[in-house]
Write the structure tokens for this entry.
Amino acid sequence: MRLKAISDLHLANEANREALLELPAFKDDWLIVAGDVAEKLEHIRFGFDELSRRFAKVFWVPGNHDLWAGPEAPGGRVLVGEERYRRMVEYAREFGIVTPEDPYETWQGPDGPRSIVPLFLLYDYSFRPDEVSREDVVAWAREGRAVCADELFLDPSPWDSRDAWCISRCDEAERRLSQLPAGQPTILVNHFPLRRDLARLPRAPRFVPWCGTRRTEDWHLRFNAEVVISGHLHIRKTDWRDGTRFEEVSLGYPYQWDRSLGMAAYLRDILPGASSSEAANSAARLSR
């Protein structure tokens, strides 16, 4: 029995949907999906259905693309913000998938129990450089040709801003995490990286304001994380901070992965854990 992870399936792309259909079953294993399943609800339901058939248990957290608001059918009502998120939670539960709104599940491994913590935290633009104000951050990013499409498609209703939604989500996550037994090891799962120093984007460095919140910089220490899982960057990698393993587990768009390997090759083994060298070598091989 293994705990595996992947993110950024982007099932709007036919090649990615076909790869999911070709994915073999891992009936004894659990899977973490760290966001960006698709933009359309029909593709999200398709992804939930197919993944739930292939794994003993599936965990999901939303990515920014999952939250994009657009018409699902001609004349259909557009679901946005919190309402859209709650609809996806309903779909996930329909297929037995664990969401950030559900009780934390416990992984019972040979090294003892681990609480798997799905998080939905968003971002608050605080990954920007210190000298750039919140009011100027979008213009600053635009100067570097790096404005995120969330500015058009991610409606935070009923919150006044994505920043405010992020604050609310972080408050709730901290409350729940503080209720875990003292010393309980955790697996933290969020679409966005929890640390600013891990949001390294060589090809689009000014995209970082849409990559997380500084509020979570020390959560791997505060909440005893053995592994932190994220996606969003489309840069598969393994990093270590303070003895905690950080895994970026994106699949990505069709041009960002090797179809000949199949989707199974991009499922990252989380538990039982790999050594630092094994994990880094695996991520590097798939990033070529």
In short: The first strand starts at residue 3 and ends at 6. Residues 3-286 form a domain with the Purple Acid Phosphatase; chain A, domain 2 fold (CATH 3.60.21.10). The mean pLDDT is 94. The chain has one domain: 3-286.
